[in-house]
Design goal:
The protein has five domains: 81 residues, 3-Layer(aba) Sandwich (GIY-YIG endonuclease), CATH 3.40.1440; 118 residues, no CATH class; 113 residues, 2-Layer Sandwich (Nucleotidyltransferase, domain 5); 161 residues, UvrC, RNAse H endonuclease domain (Nucleotidyltransferase, domain 5, 2-Layer Sandwich), CATH 3.30.420.340; 58 residues, DNA polymerase, domain 1, CATH 1.10.150. The longest helix is centred in the middle third of the chain and has 43 residues. With 632 residues, the protein is α+β, with helices and mostly antiparallel strands. The strands form four sheets. Strands 12, 13, 14, 15, 16, 17, 18 and 19 form an eight-stranded mixed sheet that branches. The protein has a five-stranded mixed sheet with strand order 9-8-7-10-11. Helices cover 46% and strands 18% of the residues. It contains 19 helices and 19 strands.
């Protein structure tokens, strides 16, 4: 399905998230984050002044996708994870984890501090009220904005009046004068004898940890109480300062759901569906970070429960995926969990747990996956509806142009060969303007020698419609539907070949040919001895071009596969002692001719069915080829 950038721009959500720009070959060329995806992505395609780098990037955009998040902070983390994973060429790339700042709480100290760091170590531990036997720290993050981290630390220190100095306490208590922070009431002064008890100081540290863990309701309630008291006592300046603190707390104190501190690998799966379609979205979490998202369409879902759809997806998806995480999170419980877990355990070689969380961090992740599935479903449904309408209208316009009743089912044919070598024919089918790949057919030319496209086309069409007539008479073939229109990849000559075949078989079907210009681009259709021009800007022209391109692609792909097989066959069969069985065994073992050529005699001999003499013959054969290539 073609990606219509203008139409997809209209469907963008006005929510925070990440956008991913792709080039024609599906390469990710840029990843960005936005507070408002609608406004941000639109800005790339507006006629406004941009940097030369962005102009070059926009020219290469083939399509884009988005991932919605619940906050800008989550979008920041996700953006950094995706950039690190995919390293898009138009992003400013980060070389290592130094780009990730952390908040460190030195909970192992007698009087803990909250500090900024980029190098978390393995000394994490729980907060203790007494002296730790070993220095430990608790980390929060990673974050992507160093400025935001510093602002958060500054805010926490203002609220809880924690120390920022490097003094060794309690050893250095009373040795020097307190610093400026104590003088301006930004620090409770644990370095000054009698200024604050250790118990009171540790209580403030606990409040700071609650704040960092996302539990900021207690501090908001406390600040609101202090503000009201200051106002009652007519200390309006103090009340205004506390009001500003409340605003700052509400702004920066957000629990980071997009990244987990446990460093686990897990997949998070969400489902969205409507009366016709179902979409499953999967978030891939590695080392506690979301590194990507994918989505999958589920067919034949009418009358099937959500749990059944999710169960079918889990069983099918993890049968083929190369990596199975130790934890899979679903929004809804599925049947046969113990059996599925055991099967996945065997494939993974380790324990796999399927969870359906009802609260907490994991449940929020499951809801986020579901939200993205819903967004994909709604966007794709509208795009499919628009695409369906366009393609059906184009097919109707084609029938109108040719003066036939309808063109709902179109069959198109092409011949591919190189100087008559391995001639093949292809048949592609379009229904209501869209390719129906299950009805495509390939033909190996059997009766024609040399580069005779007309004779080859005669053979292909005869075989195709004879098969149809025979199957129809026997009533034992589902592929018996007649086309409304036959399109030939050529003009008058190809059309006449088709008409003669149909006449010979007693069939009356409309046949049109795609007339090309000097650049081999379709300029019109040949029908009933007349060339009919097509508006090159119309949906009809796009439909005919798609059919032509798909017919070429299918024929050429088939021809290339046969050609490669023939080359491999001829080269290996030139080696004495290598027949079909040994040839297949070698290809199964090494995968390609190049790998066989590089294999040692011992590796060749280890292949089932080979022996020392055959292995030596293969090795000698390729050694001779190398010498001849070098000498030439």
């Amino acid at each position: 399905m073609e990606f219509d950038i203008e139409e997809n721009l209209k469907q963008l959500p006005k929510r925070p998230g990440v956008y991913i720009m792709h080039a024609e070959n599906d390469e990710i060329i840029y990843v960005g984050k936005a507070v408002n995806l609608f406004n941000r992505v639109h800005s790339y395609f507006r006629a406004t002044k941009k940097s030369a780098k962005i102009e070059r990037m926009v020219e290469k955009i083939s399509y884009f996708e988005t991932i919605v998040t619940d906050s800008e902070l989550e979008a920041l983390i996700l953006e950094c994870n995706l950039i690190k994973t995919h390293r898009p060429p138009y992003n400013t790339l980060l070389k290592d984890d130094k780009s990730y700042p952390y908040i460190k709480v030195t909970v192992g100290e007698e009087y803990p501090r909250i500090i900024f760091t980029r190098k978390p170590h393995g000394d994490t531990g729980a907060f203790k009220t007494g002296r730790s036997e070993k220095t430990k720290a608790q980390y929060f993050g990673p974050y992507t904005s160093a400025g935001s981290v510093r602002e958060t630390i500054e805010l926490i220190n203002r609220i809880f009046k924690l120390r920022t100095c490097n003094r060794v306490l309690p050893k250095d208590i009373g040795k020097e004068r307190p610093c400026l922070n104590y003088q301006i009431n930004q620090c409770s002064g644990p370095c000054r004898e009698g200024a604050v008890s250790r118990e009171s100081y540790l209580e403030n540290v606990r409040g700071a940890l609650e704040f960092l863990e996302g539990n900021y309701r207690p501090i908001l309630d406390r600040l609101k109480g202090e503000m009201e008291k200051a106002a009652e006592e007519l200390r309006f300046e103090d009340a205004a300062g506390i009001r500003d603190l409340i605003g700052a707390v509400s702004e920066v104190a957000q629990k980071q759901k997009i990244t987990s501190s446990d460093g686990e690998d897990r997949d998070v799966i969400g489902l969205a569906r409507n009366e016709k379609d179902a979409v499953v979205a999967v978030f891939f979490v590695r080392d506690g970070r979301i590194i990507g998202r994918d989505h999958f369409d589920m067919t034949e879902t009418e009358g099937v429960s959500d749990a059944e759809i999710l169960g079918s997806f889990v069983r099918q998806f993890y049968t083929g995926t190369p990596f199975i995480p130790p934890q899979i999170i679903l929004e809804e419980e599925i049947e046969e969990i113990p059996v599925i877990e055991e099967a996945l355990k065997i494939r993974r070689g380790g324990k796999v747990t399927i969870l359906t969380p009802k609260r907490g961090f994991k449940e929020k992740l499951a809801r986020l996956a579901k939200k993205n599935a819903e967004l994909i479903l709604n966007t794709d449904r509208e795009r499919k509806d628009r695409e369906r309408k366009r393609t059906q209208e184009a097919a109707a316009k084609l029938a109108e142009l040719l003066g036939i009743e309808k063109a709902e089912r179109i069959e198109s044919y092409d011949i591919s060969n190189i100087s008559g070598f391995l001639s093949v024919g292809s048949m592609v089918v379009f229904e209501n303007g869209r390719g129906r790949t299950s009805d495509y057919r390939k033909f190996r030319i059997k009766t024609v020698e040399g580069p005779d496209d007309y004779a080859s086309m005669d053979e292909v069409l005869t075989r195709r419609f004879k098969r149809l007539l025979e199957a129809e008479e026997a009533g034992n073939d589902s592929f018996t539907r007649y086309p409304d229109l036959i399109l030939m990849d050529g003009g008058k000559g190809q059309v006449n070949v088709a008409l003669k075949v149909l006449e010979k078989l007693g069939l009356d079907l409309p046949v049109a040919g795609m007339v090309k210009d000097d650049c081999h681009r379709t300029r019109g259709l040949y029908f009933n001895n007349e060339e009919l021009p097509i508006d090159t800007h119309s949906e009809l022209f796009k439909l005919v071009t798609r059919i032509q391109d798909e017919t070429h692609r299918f024929a050429i792909t088939y021809h290339r596969s046969l050609r490669d097989s023939a080359q491999v066959h001829s080269i290996l069969n030139d080696i004495e002692g290598i027949g079909d069985k040994r040839r297949k065994a070698l290809l199964m073992a090494f995968g390609s001719l190049e790998a066989i050529a590089e294999a040692s005699k011992e590796e060749l001999e280890a292949v089932p069915g080979m022996n020392a003499k055959a292995a030596e013959a293969v090795r000698a054969f390729f050694d001779r080829r190398k010498r001849n290539t070098y000498n030439n």
